[in-house]
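Entry 14. Structure prediction run on the chain below.
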Amino acid sequence: MAPKQTWTPKEAVGKVPLSVRKDLRDNWESVKGEHEGKISATLGKQYVINFNALEVYPYTEETQGFSNGPLGNIFAGYAQCLVDAVERFVEEYGEDGKLHFNEAVTNGEFTLNVNESGIDASVIGCEVKGGTYRILFRYDCLGYNQSTIYETMLTAIDSVPREGFPVEIKASVTTYWDGGAEDVRQAIGEILAMPDVVIDPNFEENYAAMKGGKPTSVDWKEKFANVTLEYFNGGVKAQLDRQGFKDDDLLQEGLAEVLTSKTFKLRIVETMKTPGIHETFFEDGICYIQTTVENWEYNLPSVGEGLVDSL
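Output returned:
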């Protein structure tokens, strides 16, 4: 078996060649302020870009096509793609995203650093470390895949501990739940002749359960509120309609007798009362829709089956 490759970070140089200094002056320092201004305007906070040529220059020798190359252009390319990524981030996640970004990057600084994972590093990535947003390049891929900076931005920002939901969850709630829950609630209320019915997404507890468990879907955060809404829309509402509650006084009255809180509540638990993917039952005047982390979002059309039989 061949020995595993090792990698050692390069020492910073004391000075870069004159041609490189000229390229930095002409192609980087001349546009640096413009890029900083755009990022600062987008985020509503002063930001600086500190790309250290003395630290980065040694890696031009490792990167095919860039030996003694145009470091100024390389820096400008990273900065332009960073501007594009920040603008896209704020466009995607709005004021909440901007707030999270600024709270994570407390130093108001962007740097460019070699990824210390060495040969195991991805071509490009990013992280927030000590309040600084660090763009990371693989030691032999300086300047590569600059346009993909955005792809790891959300993960970097959400990795910084903070109270409340991460950016992706808040965006999901705003987009899907806030935008559609009231229509679903009204539709359920119409079916049950219960205009003040409540649908409780139980976001905080369910998010904590998902975060602490092992979800089977890699994009569960992005879909969290949408899937939650579907438990009530494609599940409960559709089943109530299918089981004939609409315009049936007897069924409506029977449900009202046990649903004294007028509340349907979604809950993720470690162990369900009955075998299966999900279950629906009444307890303390609440209709609970229960599932587990492992079964989250599976077989939603069957949510609420057997409600009539449980009355």
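The two ends are 67 Å apart (CA to CA).
Filed with the rest of this week's runs.
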